[in-house]
Amino acid sequence: MATASNEFKLIVPSNIERYNPSAVTLSCRLSPEISAVDLEIRWFKETDCVCVYKNSKVTEGRGYEGRVSLFTQELERGNVSLQLRNCTESDDGYYLCQVTDGDRTEEITVYMSKCS
Fold this sequence. Notes:
The chain has about 120 residues and is mainly beta. It has no helices and 10 strands. One of its GO terms (molecular function) is signaling receptor binding.
């Protein structure tokens, strides 16, 4: 019997957050609100890998060292949002959030235009 544990989709909350220019949050969460602790989370900007979460470890992409983080304490509640610090105009654009559970991958695009 198939388990429903990997039945989820990604949503981008529609409520606009108040952005701090020094730290922008790209909101993304799992629906239903299941734990993402054991999942693989990847954030991309175009073809650049911004951040990878795998085996409880966050790896920052080249050029994003020290500037990106996930809300690891909120992964249990399905929060897979990305925080980007010290952003510049070149950080504006489309970001892809990709969450993988075994052989199943869900992805969603988040647009950011807060840094310019």
